[in-house]
Amino acid sequence: MPNTKNYHTSQPDYETAIDRNVPDFPVAEVLDEDKYFQNHEPPSYLPEIEAQIDKFVDFHCQQTQKKVVLVTSGGTTVPLENNTVRFIDNFSAGTRGATSAEYFLENGYAVIFLHREFSLLPYSRHYSHTTNCFLDYMVEKDNKVEINPEFADSMLVVLRKYMAAQKANSLLLVPFTTVNQYLYTLRLASQLLQKAQSDALFYLAAAVSDFFLPSSRMPNHKIQAQPSGKLVVDLEQVPKFLRRLVDSWAPQAMIVSFKLETDSSILIKKSVQALNRYHHQLVIGNLLQTRKNEVVLVTPDEAQNWIRLDDTQKHQNVEIESLIIPAVIQEHENWVKNWTAKNK
Ligand code: 9Z3
């Protein structure tokens, strides 16, 4: 995909990094979420992203009337140093997000793809991480490069879908690397998406850090060997931003979050807990071990809708996202209907 941006989220932000004048605890009594934004600087490139998202949302609200989904994808990092050599990462290749984005596009949505920079992307995912090198898809013939005929048919299918999305201007790629960049960009995008009202959908598949190192305590330079021979890292809990998203950043939108567990006995309990805590509309529960073959859709009435690939589907390499997305879209249609009826 063409790279039109002038920044990389994986590079440290020297301009806005540490401000040692910022107090660890503000005087005023504010919610943790607000406190976070008061004490952490926004990424310097945010105005550039604001202009892109604003234009994209306006285009679809005014010209195409497409519903707009914000898909988050990939893991956020927590830097341990300002000039970042070491960081803590969250597991996610970006498969769920990139694959889901393709099915949303196929189903007529415009997609803002908020992703970990250099993780899987819609369409290119079919070729970027599947061999040692993308050149494996090429052959030389008569002094020219050609697509290996073995892959040509399947690549044509993907190419057509990719070109259609480009032509319709229905896919906007927005990167993040750190949890700070993610939170600032999510808040910005959700506020800009208010224009789309209930036509906006949030599909939060990114694996977001639960703990982080506040900028007021972050060393500027690479941490050196410690006399104790140990490195003790004292992390704070990342504020529960989902509550703010539901309450005030995007109150008219439908919000879907993912719950990732490794212990099957607590998956449903934790999914219901998330719905009770944040009051959003849908949690998709999945286990790390089986996430490509089964997920459970949990709604506030505690109904559980399991989506599973059967053996034939597994054999045919059916992607589970091709079943998840129509179910989510159905829920979104109900949400829009109810919202429209309420606001007549
Ligand atoms: C997920 O559960 C995603 O489905 C996966 C996708 C990260 C498992 P891959 O990208 O993996 O296909 O390799 N995402 C949500 C993960 C998460 O951090 N959820 C939080 C939680 O479970 C809530 S926001 O507490």
Automatic annotation (TrEMBL):
<comment type="similarity">
    <text>Belongs to the PPC synthetase family.</text>
</comment>
<dbReference type="GO" id="GO:0015937">
    <property type="term" value="P:coenzyme A biosynthetic process"/>
</dbReference>
<dbReference type="Pfam" id="PF04127">
    <property type="entry name" value="DFP"/>
</dbReference>
<feature type="domain" description="DNA/pantothenate metabolism flavoprotein C-terminal">
    <location>
        <begin position="188"/>
        <end position="306"/>
    </location>
</feature>
<feature type="domain" description="DNA/pantothenate metabolism flavoprotein C-terminal">
    <location>
        <begin position="65"/>
        <end position="117"/>
    </location>
</feature>
<dbReference type="InterPro" id="IPR007085">
    <property type="entry name" value="DNA/pantothenate-metab_flavo_C"/>
</dbReference>
<dbReference type="InterPro" id="IPR035929">
    <property type="entry name" value="CoaB-like_sf"/>
</dbReference>
<protein>
    <recommendedName>
        <fullName>DNA/pantothenate metabolism flavoprotein C-terminal domain-containing protein</fullName>
    </recommendedName>
</protein>
<dbReference type="GO" id="GO:0004632">
    <property type="term" value="F:phosphopantothenate--cysteine ligase activity"/>
</dbReference>
